[in-house]
Amino acid sequence: MKIAMLDPSLFTGRYDDSLCAALAGQGAEVTLLGRPMRATDAIAPQGYAYLPHFFRRSEALRDKLGEGRAFRLAKAAEYGLACALGNIRPLLAADLVHVQWLPLAPADRLMLQRLKGRTALVHTVHNADAYHADAGLQGRGYRALLDLFDALVVHGETTRDALVGQGVDPARIHVTPHPPMRLATASPQDLAAIAMPTMPRLLFFGTIRPYKGVDLLIEACVQLWRAGHRFELVLAGKPFMDVAPLTDAVAQAGFADRLITDFGFLTEGRLDAHMVRADMLVFPYRHIDSSGAFLSALHHGKAMVTSDAGMFGQLPDDVAVRAPAGNAPALAQALLPLIESAAIRQEHGARARAYGEEMGSWKDMAVATIGVYEQVLAGRA
Hints:
With 381 residues, the protein is an alpha/beta fold. It has helices at 13-25, 56-60, 62-65, 69-85, 89-92, 105-115, 142-145, 157-165, 188-193, 214-226, 244-252, 268-277, 292-297, 328-340, 342-358, 362-380, and strands at residues 2-6, 29-34, 49-52, 96-99, 120-124, 151-154, 173-175, 201-205, 232-237, 259-263, 280-283, 303-307, 321-323. The strands form 2 sheets. A 7-stranded parallel β-sheet has the order 3-2-1-4-5-6-7, with helices on both faces. A 6-stranded parallel β-sheet has the order 10-9-8-11-12-13, sandwiched between helices.
């Protein structure tokens, strides 16, 4: 079985790599089509092929243009042209095209319409609300694209129920639970670059977007600092929003020395180093379906604090400390026992690690995914 796996912008490179390698391990011939690799990517294809099919010209201009408006416009123009008129032979050569992400819905529609009826189409819906309503034009029309696919893959009942509520036929939806992931292991150089904590350290890592509730986290931390509690907060990742008001709020409150920022596209090794150094990991998301960041951190055995949104609300009670989504005072109260007690942190961390060890594997995911493929291909036959 030949599979063309699409993640044009490599939004979830670690997920793509894990799934493609597992599918190859089950005998599938897989090609992952994305953009040219960057220094921050850690994909090393094992048993599958990688094709830098998208964004070749705009990525070549990235260093010159920076990552601002000019670069985004160049990417959008190149992608739109590729979807409308570009080479789709590598996709048609496969038995099935599995799309992980649709990065620009108006352009994606053009590509999918060219493929529809000529090959089988499967899409993993990572979030029922595309980009969590933060992306404007990027996600406009996303729901209509779902009707072009033969099958939709989701990772939990939250997403399935949301799609059914949007009018998607339940027979087209397949639930395949998301296994834990592991980022590239921190090197000695990565670890040396991250200072040892001088007090209990709280870490938020990954892309920084409005729906992830970093503003709520800042508000909660300032409340706790003002009450005399000693801990430090690390924000590590690439901002996709203006974070200056957040860092300014900490400085104006007089706690700039308690906030550590490491902004930018970080390597997996550097993110892993941040997790090694942290005492607690926090996911204060306003809304989410499933969180790859959470699943990539379980093996570290650190205390987890989450909102109750999406998959977090379905976790066993002892895996993470939860607070109502969107509630900064409640988040502060959830953090407080962990900040004050190393023993409580260790107990919760052990539970998080055990939960990760009990979850399914990427082999299980691959077997289930191939089952979806076989069902789609049989239906088309």
